[in-house]
Structures are given as C-alpha cells and as structure tokens.
Amino acid sequence: MRIEQTALLQEPFTKDKPLQLKDGQVLPAKVVKVLPNGMAELSAGSAKVIAKLEASLQVGGKYWFRVSMQTDGWLLKVVAPQASNVKDRAQTAEYLLRSFGLPLTQENKAVAEMLIREKLVLSKEVLEHAGRWLSKGKVSEGVQTIQSMLNRSLPMTNEIYQSLRTVYSPAPMVQVISELESQLKLLSNPPEAAVRVIQLLDNWQQPPYSKQLIQQVLSALVEQTFSSIQLSSSSSAVELLKSWGITSTEAETAEEAIVQIISQWSKQIGKQEGGTAETLAQLKETTGRLLMQGTYSKEALLPLQQAFEGMVKAAKASKQPVLALEVQQLLTRLDTPGLSGEKLTSLFKATARAVVYHTEPDEAIRQLSSLFQQGEDELLHKVAAGMDRLAAMPAKLLAKEPSLSQYIAAAAKAEQTGYLTGSAAYSLLKDALRFLGGNMESMLAAERVKAQEMEDMLKPHLLRLTASPLPSHTKELAEQLIGRIQAQSLLSLESGPFQQLVMSLPINLFGFQTDMIMQWSGRRNERGELDANDCRVLFYLELQFLRETIIDMQVRNRFVYLQIYNAHTDLKQLAGPLLPMLEEGLKNQGYQLSSIQFRKTKLAGSRLLVQAAEAEPYEGIDVQV
C-alpha cells in the first residue's frame, strides 16, 4: 500500500455532510426523541432528521430505516436493527438485498456488508453499479474503491470507479509504463497512437541530464563563443556548436553563424506565437526592421528596452550589473544611423547572455531554443548527445581537447554519478507533471496549452490508443495508466481553506526509473494560494540502493521538522555530511531547519505509510539544529 492508497482511505476533512433523503434509500439512524403524532427526531451521522415513523420505537434505539416519500413528508420504516457483529451484518445484508430485488451474489453481498459496517446509506442504484463493477475484478479492491467514492461524495460513474481502482494495483506506475511499452513494441502493425506512445516512453526512459547542467553548458558555450579575449576558446565553442547542429556548419566564425541565424528571423515576422519571453519577439521584430530599413527610431526601440530590462531583472543577481551595462551600450549603438553586422551581432550577443543568465533553467532553455531556431526538445537532445560523446572520450584524447571540452566532459561525468540540486529536482518533477498531462483538460479549458505541448503529453495519446484496435491485455495496461493519471485529482481533497493534494509521478533518477508519491496537506491563505508557511508533506520513494524511503516533512511558521523512515542501518551517519547543505538550502528559501529524526524500520510498505501518516511528530529528536 502506498501513500495514494492511504490517502484514498482517508475521510474528507469534515464528515459533516448534508443528508439528502431519497425515496427507496435505506439508512442507519438513532432515535433521539419521540414527538407527538407519530413523529420522531433521528440522528443519522451528524445530521438531524424529523420524520414520521411507521411504528413506535424506543429512544436510543439504532435501526436501519427505509425512506418513503409521502404527500405530507418523509415516512421511515424500520427494516432491521443495526447489527453489532459480523454474522448479524451478513444476515442484514442478505435481507436488504432481497428487499431491493437484487441477487445474492458474492459481489453484492460484499458491497452491502461494507455499507452496513461503515453505516453508509444504501440504495438500489449504488448496489447495482457496484455489483456490476466488482464482477470484473478483485472484489476486495473494488469494495474499497466504492467506499472511497461514497466517502468523497463522488459521482457513481464507471470512469471514476476505474480510475480510483488503479490506485490499489500493487504495480508501481513505472512498471505499468515499462510493460505497456514492451507490449506495444510486439505489435506487428501498430496504430499511429502506439508509435507516438512508444516514442514518448523511450524518450522518458533515457537518463536525462538535468536542465540546470545543460543551462550551465550552454552558458559556457555562449560566453566562449562571444569571447574577444581568448580567440582559441571562441573558435572551439563555435566548432562545438556546429558539431552539435546548433549553428550552421557553413559558418567560419561566430559572427557568420549569428548573421545566418538572424537572416532567418526576417522571414518569420508576423508568424510569432507569443513565445515565452517578450524580448525574443521584440528582438526578431527589431532585427527584421533593421534589415529592411537600415535604421530604427528611439521611440521604436522603447519596447525592446523594456523587454531587456525585464530580462536583466530575471537574471542571477551576480550577473545583473554587467548585463545592464551591456544592454545600455547596445541600445546606444542601435540608436545611431546605419546598419552593420556589428550591430546585429551585438544585439544577438546581449540577448544570448541575458538568456543564459536566467535564474530558471526551464525558461533559459526555452528562450535559447527560440534564439537559435531550435525546438526545445531538439536542443536538449543535441546538447545531451554532445555531452555524452565528450564524456565517453578516453582521458588521453580529452587532454588534447581545448579546456571548454574538458569542462563539459567533466560536468557530464559528474552528473552521471552526482546528486540532484534543488532547482534540478524542481525541473524533474515539473517535467514529469507535464509529461503525464494529468491537467490537460484544465489547461485546454483555460487555453493555456499549445498544440506542440499537447503532442508531448502522454495522456492524450493514451486516450487515442485505447480507441484503437489492440490486444485485450495491452488495452488494459493503457487504461490502467490513464486511470493512474486521472486518479490524482480524485485523491485530492478540499474543504473550505483546507486542502490535500496527492501526486504520483514517474521519475528518472540517473537512469533508475521509480515512482515519487507526494501528499501535501495544509490550508490556503487569504489570497487563495497554498500556504507554504504551515503544511505537512509526505514523500514516498523506492530508491535504487536505499529502497523504500518515506520523508515526513512538517512546516510550522516556516520552521521545518523532518522524519525519515528507512530500513538502512547507517542512514543517519550517511546523511550527516549533507545536513549543512540541507540547512543552508532551506535558509536560502526563507525556512529554518529545526529537527531531523531518522527512524529505522523493517515494516512492510502499508504499515510504514500508516506509521508515517499517524505518528506523533517531533518526539525524541535525533538531530537538533
């Protein structure tokens, strides 16, 4: 059992649900007070009901009542006393099924007994749906799913049932993904959707370099390409860009490569889709007009200046002064009459530096891909492939390469055996969310997704795949994966300001595929945003060497308390050297590390999760900061 399963079994934040009586229902209630004229006050859960009783009953008695709508109000008829043991519950379940005219199948009896045990309202509609669904799978998992749907007041639809039921599958999402890909590759004549799903899964399973590292590599290349001091390094950078397919192989110098790139921009004026940064659109428009007119007015340069100012603010603090000076010098040169290759290359250089100095790797790479006329995925693939080639070179050959190549090769090797930084982990999770496409419908409704983004999402292609002719087992795997993606929104709870979010993401940790499951519990602040000052976050990971690991993080007024569950004997000692880095990283984000507990346990996954979710926090501090 994983966090998803424990979250599914949890009651919503409040059990005070309004009771809505319907004709034919059977509900459990207690007689609170007998009123005149055959009326009585009953308590059904937290709700109070005034209704007419068919027979006089004792105050305090607990019964199952059948609801009947009369012209003068509700009439409640006693069906049976509430059972206190398993045998009585089974007998009551059979009696109620007969009263609904339903067969005494194993599935129907299992659902009815669960409803009686949990004191939930019974209806013929629910029992019919449940019995039909349970006949097609494992009864115990189906009963738990029905219980969760009723507790959360979810519509009793097959789509919701099938999505929630996948949560009880013992197979991790990465195992379902791997098995689905294997089955699709066995198809002799795969449909178009299958081909695209295979491509997406193949790309995801390749051990990726972090976007932060690729940003650093491209930053080094940009700096060396535009270096006027070290000509040999500049030439080396240009050759690397050419060999990686980022610039034209026909260009002899950096300036020639820039002019060739810029010459393409003038052909695309008016075809921009908005882009991720206004600067790039303004840059292309500016250069296009420079090419056509040979001059540019001060008023026309104002939008470009404003866009550059925004890029300077988004750059790393240490780079802002240098970048601001370069932008000011550029704008001064552009304001003078005449057009020259020097002006165009200066414009490109200033933009390139502003891009690689960006604090967010995702945004930097998106802007670089637009700047160099490359697709984002294409750019990432080219840089990663180039880094792989350098990292694989023998040391004696690499020693003869320029220092820039040695730097890139060393960075690639370090990445393959290193650890994730905070920003790299953020990018990893963000990419996994985008890859699954779980929020595809909401993005479409808000018109926040482009055609290419949809093409790179897994979910829409899985939906197309299930509509294609497939072997039954392959189709079941695709449907199970869709269900796992869709279940995440169903697992999340919201009641007033309180919120619980559950995410299950397949992630690729240096070539090791695993599931990362996260449960966030807390409230929204006065602005309607998730409150990061006071919350609780549970992380569940199956790691390559440490195996099953749970991190229970509680935040109280920006003080962070951690409990780490793992069966490894020396985990506390292994983690010791990393604690100062953890403390410093939290401090940089405005948090203070208060305590860490390391809990050694050999419990199975289900008990481990329950212990992490229910343990009293912060007793017996192992490490006090």
Q: Spatial order of the strands in the main sheet?
A: 6-7-8-9-10-11-12-13
Note the main sheet.
Answer: 8 strands, mixed
In DSSP terms (H or I, runs of 4 or more residues), the helix count works out at 27
Strand content: 15-25%
> Please, what is the average pLDDT?
76
Overall 3D form = elongated
Radius of gyration: 31 Å
Low-confidence stretches: 11-15, 269-277, 603-625
Task: State the total count of DSSP E strands.
Answer: 13
Distance between the termini: 33 Å
User: Which structural class do the helices and strands define?
Assistant: alpha+beta
Keywords summarizing the entry:
disordered C terminus, alpha+beta, elongated, eight-stranded mixed β-sheet, 27 helices, 625 residues, single chain, five-stranded mixed β-barrel
Q: How would you sum up this structure, described in words?
A:
This protein has 625 residues and is an alpha+beta fold. The protein contains 27 helices and 13 strands. A hairpin with a 3-residue loop joins β9 and β10.
